[in-house]
Automatic annotation (TrEMBL):
UniProt entry keywords in alphabetical sequence: Hydrolase
GO molecular function, one term: hydrolase activity
UniProt keyword Transport present: no
UniProt cross-references to PANTHER family, sorted A to Z: ANAEROBIC NITRIC OXIDE REDUCTASE FLAVORUBREDOXIN
Keyword Manganese set for record: no
Protein name as catalogued: MBL fold metallo-hydrolase
InterPro entries: Metallo-B-lactamas, RibonucZ/Hydroxyglut_hydro
Entries under Pfam families matching the protein: Lactamase_B
Length: 265
């Protein structure tokens, strides 16, 4: 159950479950002459034994994330950082958190990261799809990123609250209104497909050149196996009704590719 579900004045950070914090912030984009917002979100999780940060946040939100983590961890250390992929909004604050939490280990598809961060090479633990991290009372399982923008992108699934963390997948912009940045999809009107199409084409540029419908069978199979209660995109509101949002997201993905592409001669 989402904490504070009826409160229409939520701003990030927000506790979305007893042991899951949604933090980060938004940036302005323009859509058809209107200013809209795009999340740059991260999630922190507490287990009975260990803690984890999923993505690091954009550097412009460093101070607010720092304060949010202090409050959420309550004096506990950060044990793991899972970076979904090597892109600034997702790994830009990695050096900051690795310095602040000297026992933290970096996990994920991070086989190249010793080249980027040789000073923390001994704290990097490459992991593959199907491997998991036990936080105590909850396990974070790495799963394939069906919708990804980089080759090293991975998604993650929390077995306790059944939350699926999908990086750039399921991205949704939202109207710039007070408090909207911290609302779930069920706490606000359903988005116009244009609000999804905009971010799809910015974050997942392949949708402009590939038939996204070819990916739907793999996505449906993954969702059937995991049965997530929530879907948590980095660039969108927390999806607390996946069954309602999935058809809208799929429709927006399919809209990005032109109906007629030039034929090879």
């Amino acid at each position: 159950m989402i904490i504070g579900r009826q409160d229409r004045h939520h701003r990030l950070p927000r506790r979305v479950a007893r042991d899951i914090l949604w933090a980060g912030g938004c940036m302005e984009l323009e859509l058809d002459g209107e200013l809209v917002h795009s999340h740059f979100g991260i999630y922190a999780l507490r287990g009975t034994e260990k803690t984890m940060l999923i993505d690091t946040g954009h550097p412009i939100h460093a101070e607010r994330i720092d304060a949010a983590l202090d409050g959420f961890l309550g004096g506990r250390e950060l044990d793991y950082i899972f970076v979904t992929h090597a892109e600034l909004p997702h790994c830009g604050l990695l050096p900051k958190w690795m310095a602040k939490y000297p026992q933290a280990r970096l996990v994920g598809d991070v086989r190249d990261y010793p080249l980027y961060y040789p000073e923390i090479a001994d704290r990097i633990l490459p992991m593959k799809v199907g491997e998991s991290v036990d936080l105590g009372g909850r396990r974070i399982v790495l799963v394939p990123a069906i919708w990804c923008d980089l080759k090293d992108t991975l998604w993650a699934f929390d077995t306790a609250d059944r939350m699926l963390f999908v990086a750039d997948g399921f991205s949704i912009t939202h109207h710039h209104k007070p408090g909207t940045c911290g609302l779930t999809t069920q706490e606000q009107p359903l988005p116009d497909v244009r609000m999804l199409k905009l971010l799809n084409e910015l974050a997942l540029q392949w949708v402009k050149y590939t038939d996204a419908e070819r990916t739907y069978a793999a996505l449906d199979e993954l969702l059937a196996i995991l049965a997530p209660r929530y879907i948590a995109p980095a660039h969108g509101a927390l999806i607390d009704a996946p069954g309602i949002m999935l058809p809208i997201v799929k429709r927006a993905m399919a809209m990005s590719m032109p109906t007629a592409l030039p034929q090879a001669s």
